[in-house]
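Please fill in the sequence for the structure shown.

STRUCTURE ENCODING:
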């Protein structure tokens, strides 16, 4: 409906349990007509940053995301890249990342997002942000966030869309990563009640609340 109305669409996701290609494949299987170019995700942005700064990462990420880093030099790591590793978030793996960071003269921790939790069919689950904070505290380092709610992430999505922030609207269920991040970037935002929406959360700025994404008619988006 959004595309048919003439509006541009870019999916901003903190998905770090799958490559963009696999993510798009899942969406297409659900009937959504999207392409890889219409998805802004943390892993490709992190790869760009790693190449730009000559960083060689130790990866603590989901095994399905590893192919995104296939062309990145990972020998003799000089940084740690943290994603939603799910079952890979074991004590041994976290401690290995800790030891690498604490042994660096200038530790570099790159986090693919900083979400607190997310919702799956069996309930809420801890997200990468919780583990990021643990490593920050243990190593006395501040992580560089690549993904929502980082301003640079939204700016990258806007660049791919080819529109300024004031002409873009973010629709999401995460009050911090989606709504708050977009608003701090100068965008407008719509909060939806699906996913992990909780009414106890307060909005950074007043934002319309919708039952679900499909209830945002293109006519409304045109007038925002």
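FILLED IN BY: designer on duty
SEQUENCE:
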């Amino acid at each position: 409906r959004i595309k048919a109305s003439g509006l541009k669409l870019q999916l901003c996701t903190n998905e770090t349990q799958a490559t963009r290609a696999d993510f798009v494949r899942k969406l297409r299987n659900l009937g959504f007509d999207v392409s890889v170019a219409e998805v802004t995700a943390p892993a490709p942005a992190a790869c760009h940053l790693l190449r730009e700064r000559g960083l060689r990462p130790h990866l603590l990420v989901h095994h399905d995301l590893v192919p995104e880093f296939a062309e990145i030099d990972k020998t003799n790591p000089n940084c740690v890249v943290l994603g939603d590793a799910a079952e890979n978030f074991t004590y041994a793996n976290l401690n290995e990342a800790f030891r690498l960071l604490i042994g660096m003269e200038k530790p570099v921790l790159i986090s693919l997002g900083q979400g607190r939790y997310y919702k799956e069919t069996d309930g809420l689950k801890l997200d990468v942000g919780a583990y990021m904070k643990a490593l920050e505290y243990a190593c006395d380092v501040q992580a560089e966030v690549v993904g929502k709610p980082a301003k640079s992430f939204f700016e990258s999505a806007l660049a791919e869309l080819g529109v300024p922030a004031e002409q873009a609207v973010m629709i999401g269920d995460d009050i911090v990563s989606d709504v708050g991040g977009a608003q701090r970037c100068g965008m407008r935002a719509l909060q939806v009640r699906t996913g992990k929406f909780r009414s106890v959360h307060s909005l950074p700025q007043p934002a319309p609340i919708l039952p679900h994404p499909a209830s945002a008619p293109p006519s409304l988006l045109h007038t925002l």
